[in-house]
Automatic annotation (TrEMBL):
It comes from Blastopirellula marina. This is DUF1501 domain-containing protein. InterPro entries: Alkaline_phosphatase_core_sf, DUF1501, TAT_signal. SUPFAM superfamilies: Alkaline phosphatase-like.
Amino acid sequence: MSGPSHQNSAPVWNHSRLSRREALQAGAVGILGLGMNHLAGLREAQGAADAVPNGKAKKLIFIFLSGGLAQHESFDMKPEAPEDVRGEFKPIATKTPGLQICEHLPQLAQRSEMWSLCRSLTHGSNEHSAGHHIMLTGHSELPTGFSPNSPSRRDRASIAAITGYAMRQRQKNNLPTAVVLPERLVHNSGRVIPGQHAGEMGPQHDPWMIEASPFHNTSYGAFPEYAFDHQERGKKDNRVFQAPQLSLPEGLGMRSVRGRLDLLKSMNRQRRALGHHAQVENFDRLRQGAVSLLTESTVHDALDVTHADEKDLDRYGRNSFGWSLLMARKLVGAGVTLVQVNLGNDETWDTHGNAFPHLKNNLLPPTDKAVSALLDDLQASGELDETMIVMAGEFGRTPRITLLEKHYKLPGRDHWGPLQSVFFAGGGIQGGNVVGKSDAIGAYPIERPVKPENFAATLYSALGIPATAAWYDVADRPHQIYHGEPIAELF
């Protein structure tokens, strides 16, 4: 089913013209027939349109550091600044002449020819929920009626949702196009952080959520090896990292009609049983994806990372950061287009206090190890050039160090929207490159300021999504995907 004619000659992504009942019927036909002709019809019923032109990147791994990575303690150190700005850590040289990063990122320093930095991303919010919405959606302005306390269908669509929607035509299998793991971002009070789902696009476009990491309201970081509590409250962390294991009951016949009906009933039972593991309210749209998750051995292997090859576990790290990035690598290898990896639950990187020991001992080492292993794997397999990796948080940290004596024994930095450093690799990124420059104390950009809209456009452009692309809502109103220019200097 082709969409209506529009003025632009570039491809346009349309919303479904079928009724919900017809779309569900199409899904039912697809799961009972399990034929590619039915799958094609189902995808058209969901609003896929003309094919996406080939981009340099075919896959995207979006590493999100909830809480806000301190630029001074990572990729934009200020060794010449006053003591209350420069902090305790020392810079080290990378393989790129003139480029220095934090001493606690030694493995990434040895791989600088594979990655680049933007040191000048800026936006106007110092609040966690607003910052999450801004960076996860690529929109500097908050929507009307935005609530920091709960997600809403008035929210903007996340980058993961937009990418999954736009790239569906390129997907050559029945797997979900966009996946988020290993946990949704939840505040320690229990409220879900906005910006993680498809927002105004509707729940049928939400990314798949693979919840492998149970919620813990005081423990953060790469558990079990590097778990910590920002305020050292002493609440024990007994979490186990375990992705949902989807399996077929013994003796289920896939070749018979009855077997397929039994499969549908079985999946509905598993949907109820696994409700606490994954976000599945859009199950009707994703029935074919569920079949693939159940039957693809590569997917089972991707999810069962805690029992992966011993050498892989040693390289990535036997902790939630290492397991999560190993899972992401396996999922893109199996055919998933976008994987968003939340390295730590909400505010893991929120280093208001005890910042230097927590970064040195609990946060930077497992990140350095796991991201380096991911780069090595993709380069060795020849996939780095077509797999983009980005790493960012909702904001940076204040230039000056402070001590909040009521909550912390040692100092740290507060929220800072005006500046953060963003890491880019693969997918056509020119390695060893730095875009933008901050001032002498790492507070504001002084060269090439970059907005979240530019950040999102860079990802879309690398994936080959046309600059004129749009999605259409149920009232046939177009919504542009791009709201800024890509960061051209990265390529």
